[in-house]
Design brief:
This protein has 8 helices and 13 strands. It has 311 residues and is an alpha+beta fold. The chain has 2 domains: 2-59 and 91-151 and 265-296, 2-Layer Sandwich (Major capsid protein gp5 fold); 162-263 and 298-309, hypothetical protein PF0899 fold. A hairpin with a 4-residue loop joins strand 11 and strand 12. Helix 1 (2-16) packs across helix 3 and helix 7 (201-212) packs antiparallel against helix 8. The termini are far apart. The mean pLDDT is 85.
Length: 311
């Protein structure tokens, strides 16, 4: 019992070193934790991550969406009707509350203490697990979902409504990728290299397989190596949390197309990590609390393909 008590005391002190002021991560620590989340996440690693200064934050947007040049006359100002002004809009991030509770046995803690890296271990494991779960709600969130976790906010798939392409209930193919590009307003296609197709793991495997099936040197490249896949200069990437059970046959997925920096993920900087001992059970309870939200900065700059089947 004395050994166990010593273990839990050391563990509790090690976790307490991460926090002060009632469990709140300090600004530098919070920034480090956010960087860890971003590094471990597929979507956030591509997106624009905004450290929010309050639970609600407005993102100002400004652009000239239509023609600004007019025919001019020397030494004559443009008439009032020919003058232009920028489009000023706002995107609001409204951070929703999420919690994680981990229970670590005395034995696991003892092993970690022996390695002398308990703080790093806890931060790494928490960061990996939270980043994975954030990806899930960022992609699949739906306020109409029966799953309370996913019902916290609308994710990217639910938010994308303006430029939708029917995939025809067939595996991902060049026709679907072409139609997604054509569905995008031309103003967003001026620099396609910064855009990404994002889809499920199996959908990308299916498309890669069609490329590998060509009896050419290029086909061998996709068969034998993990060569990047592009369509019209736009890379395809997979996100492990993309759904593959949609549709009547529960064998469909979606595809998104956009500049990933158009994805705005806001994380409120008041991240809390607290601990509690459960001596009878022989575990240390660690509770992490954070608030975040996701929005398209410009929803019309994204396209979505639906009814794409996966094997």
């Amino acid at each position: 019992m004395d050994d166990n008590r010593s273990i839990i005391e050391k563990a509790d002190l090690a976790v307490a070193d991460l926090t002060s002021g009632g469990g709140l991560l300090q600004p530098a620590q919070a920034a480090k934790f956010m960087r860890l989340l971003v590094k471990q996440s597929t979507v956030m690693n591509m997106a624009t991550v905004v450290p929010m200064r309050s639970p609600k934050q407005l993102i100002e947007k400004i652009r000239f969406g239509s023609r600004v040049l007019r025919a001019g006359t020397e030494a004559v100002a443009l008439p009032v009707g020919d003058r232009v002004k920028p489009d000023l809009t706002k995107t609001e991030l409204d951070a929703k509350l999420f919690k994680a509770e981990a229970r670590i046995s005395y034995e696991a803690l003892e092993d970690s203490i022996e390695r002398g890296a308990l703080k790093n271990t806890i931060m790494q494991l928490l960061g990996e697990a939270i980043a994975r779960d954030m990806d899930e709600v960022i992609i699949n969130g739906d306020t109409g979902s029966a799953d309370p976790f996913l019902a916290q906010l609308d994710g990217l798939l639910k938010q994308t409504t303006s430029n939708v392409v029917d995939g025809g209930t067939v595996p991902l193919n060049k026709g679907v990728l072409r139609d997604m590009l054509k569905a995008m307003p031309s103003e967003w296609l001026r620099n396609k290299k910064i855009m990404r197709y994002i889809t499920s793991v199996d959908a990308l495997i299916d498309y890669r397989d069609t490329l590998a099936g060509r009896a050419t040197g290029a086909g061998d490249k996709f068969l034998e190596t993990d060569a990047p896949v592009l369509y019209s200069g736009v890379p395809l990437v997979d996100a492990p949390l993309f759904p593959e059970n949609l549709g009547i046959g529960t064998n469909e997925t979606n595809v998104l197309l956009s500049d990933p920096k158009n994805i705005q993920v806001g994380i409120w900087r008041k991240i809390r990590i607290e601990t509690q001992q459960d001596a009878p059970a022989g575990v240390l309870i660690i509770v992490a609390t954070l608030r975040f939200d996701v929005k398209w900065a410009e929803e019309t700059a994204a396209a979505k393909a639906i009814k794409v089947t996966v094997a």
